[in-house]
Amino acid sequence: MKADADIAGEKPGDMPEEQAGAPGGRIRQATMAHILAAAEQVFAEAGYAGASMSRLAKAAGLPKPNLHYYFGSKQALYTAVLQNILALWLDAADDILPERDPAEALSAYIRAKMAHSRDRPHASKVFANEVLRGAPELHSYLGLELRRIVDEKALVLEGWAKRGLMDAVDARHLFFAMWAMTQTYADFDVQIRAVLGVRELDDAAFETARLTVTRLVLRGCGVTMKEAACP
Amino acid sequence: MKADADIAGEKPGDMPEEQAGAPGGRIRQATMAHILAAAEQVFAEAGYAGASMSRLAKAAGLPKPNLHYYFGSKQALYTAVLQNILALWLDAADDILPERDPAEALSAYIRAKMAHSRDRPHASKVFANEVLRGAPELHSYLGLELRRIVDEKALVLEGWAKRGLMDAVDARHLFFAMWAMTQTYADFDVQIRAVLGVRELDDAAFETARLTVTRLVLRGCGVTMKEAACP
DNA sequence: GTCTATAACAAGATAGAC
DNA sequence: GTCTATCTTGTTATAGAC
Description:
By secondary structure, chain A is mainly alpha-helical. Chain A is about 70% helix and about 0% strand.
């Protein structure tokens, strides 16, 4: 087995027995994390239907039955991959807080989302594939948890607008725009690379992308850019 | 067979025999257009791998072998659907011309793209699915035809910037942003409806979306909005 | 041109030896 | 815990009657 199984961020040698939500020994957890990491990539490239168990197994470097042994079914493995991604997704909006400066908070949010697109493109693609299919696994998450977060953050933006710190922009549609503009660098990377005529999106390309998105959002919200966009 | 087979925009009773690129009689063309319309929807909802021939056949209201009779293979049917979509995709940027006013031209472009997302969401989703998979069928299109168009339009924007009509924004990344913001209303509609807590995106929602996107782009480019954004 | 019947194969899942 | 061999089902595609 390969050694890059630390995707779930488990602390090695922490608990001697088990833990809530992650039963089993350390080797079991490591194997499962390894399978999840490989599966995320395959599901990202092929979608749910296009990812066969044999392909998933080959990507993990294991025989097919082992995947069934650990996750039961393809469906369950896919759900586990999605769950792994949502945990990553949720804490991105932590910068949007009432007491912060709008320009800085929005810049930080865009920076975090762009970093996600760069560092975890597979996660973004799996999520995109799922939503494109009609989000059969994420319906409740989108309608409950995500909706609650957006409602909460929309209040923050409306508060900023009332205090004259930014224009009164529709907060929800602003979020849709920020999600779309940042995630497109992960989901549609093939198209972007083709149009730019480059083999890879390097640091400079991502920096230009981040600055462009930040500029559109900050100016669109009527907040001054200052040096918040430049690290 | 249902009567909504006029998607390809064929002129009924035009030519008695054949035409380049569309051989066969009128009923043949009508049947093929009907299959293509149904297939677009199924490919959009299920992706390439998730769309089985039986499902495609059921959606078209025909037995499976008929689809093979007309298109040969699932692959060929899919390619035909994509080809149909590209024709639609290409003429959206017709508004970006040097002699036009930036605010009006960009507003018109965003309006056209939003209208596409509203009127042909399935087309957008098929395209998104294809690019997510790595664009195996569209690699040459993206790297040649689309790239050429974007290069051409980028020159127009740079011309506007030199004449002081707008700020010097990276034109290519601005296009990525406009594509992402507008297409998200087709591709991620499930997520948007869930967050907004509505069953359907109605006229008002699309108008708010369009105004938000237009605002971000025009202000981000430093062009005055005037009434160009309002019909 | 249309459709029933079926071939050839790959899918998800499991039994059972190790 | 691990993996070979296999079962069942659904897949694309086609043969051949109508």
